[in-house]
Amino acid sequence: MTRIVSGVKPTGHLTLGNYLGVLRRWAAADQDRGEALFCVVDLHALTVEHDPARVRRLSRQAATLMLAAGLDPARCTVFLQSHVDEHARLPYLLECVAVDGGMRRMIQYREKSARARAAGQSVRLSLLTYPVLMAADILAYRADEVPVGEDQTQHVELTRELAERFNQRYGRTFVVPRATRPAVAARVMDLRDPLVKMGKSHEATAGIVYLLDEPETVARKARRAVTDSGPGVSYEPGTRPGVAHLLEILSACTGAAPEKLAAAYNGDGALKAAVAEAVVELLRPLRARHAELSADPGYVDAVLREGAARARALARPTVDAAYAAIGLLPPV
Ligand code: TRP
Questions:
Q1: Residue-averaged pLDDT of the chain
Q2: Cβ neighbours of residue 106 closer than 8 Å, sequence gap 6 or more
């Protein structure tokens, strides 16, 4: 059976980008296509300046939102990364097959470390090794597929290289996984800047729709989306990125093609109103389910406890095999 692994990082409140990019597809397709594990990768949230209380809060919230989005513990495994020791046990071995230059070339490392330096902050070593931790998240489960957003393909590529190199040197231990991507709206952009990803950890929030935003807030953000002064509505991603992006969001909500939707509106005011309504309706059931689940923290705890137990049982033998293969004596 196809093994599917993915994760979401609790560095900020989850956004419409997280939902349309991956969460929705995890729930609608991935959890039924094989044996799927979805993880709140809380260890990854420690790679940049963080507030411990906030990470705790966001981790629980992310897990609750994953369930609210439709992940069903009867059909998939939902857990916190830090609850499964294998995620901390494996990265060191992978660091012994990774090379320094390859890690420094990672685009996300380069961008984030430059940002930290510009803000006068030091760069944590864990930011550099982050992709190795991510590789461990995937390889520990012998995953075949990793459904992620476009910005993660380089990390999955590195994961493949590490798996291949380890297997070659120390014997077949890991499955070489591949990244998979949803067909539409894999990349949701900031409504105030259609050239920048809608990032949950960004500081300027006016262009970011959070999954738990009030409907009025969602509507306001949609109304204030940056478009252009061109006439009418047309789908031209190259020259009219703002309008094109709104059409893509609407397309992701309604299932209709962006080109076809463009013909239905004569101005960007009408388009923004339609986007506002579509997104509010898309998020309504998710918000309602999140409220229900939040009222029952015992249930969420139980899901995470059972999820971690299942994940541990799957990862343990593979990580043990890697320890043995690389030359470490098993405990006597
Ligand atoms: N790096 C991913 C992100 O920023 C999150 C992540 C960590 C992940 N470990 C993973 C995704 C394993 C898929 C599989 O979105």
A1: 94
A2: 131, 154, 155, 158
Q: pTM, whole model, 2 decimals?
A: 0.94
Lining ligand 1 with CB less than 6 A are: 5-7, 9, 41, 44, 134, 137-138, 146, 148, 152, 155
What is the domain class of 189-292 according to CATH?
Answer: mainly alpha
Catalytic residue among 9, 197, 221, 272: 197
Lowest-confidence range among 126-130, 159-163, 190-194, 227-231? 227-231
Nearest CA to ligand 1 atom 9: 134
Q: Which two tokens stand for residue 208?
A: 């970011």
Instruction: Please tell me the distance from the alpha carbon of residue 294 to that of residue 72, in angstroms, as a whole number.
Output: 16
Check 9, 200, 221, 272 and give the catalytic one. 200
- At residue 187, the pLDDT reads 74
Hey, which CATH number is domain 3-181+296-326, 3.60.15.10, 3.10.105.10, 2.10.260.10, 3.40.50.620?
3.40.50.620
* Catalytic residue flag (residue 112): yes
197 counts as catalytic: yes
Is 200 part of the annotated catalytic residue set? yes
Question: What is the reported pLDDT for 184?
Answer: 56
Are 160 and 127 in contact by the 8 Å Cβ rule? The answer is: no
Distance 304 CA to ligand 1 centre (A): 18
User: Which pLDDT band, with edges at 50, 70 and 90, does 109 fall under?
Assistant: very high
Give the model confidence (pLDDT) of 51-94 as tens digits.
Answer: 999 999 999 999 999 999 999 999 999 999 999 999 999 999 99
Residue with the smallest CA separation from ligand 1 atom 15 is 8
Contact 194, 173 (CB under 8 A): no
The count of residues in the chain is 332
Is-contact 128 192, C-beta < 8 A?
A: no
CA 144 to centroid of ligand 1, rounded, Å: 15
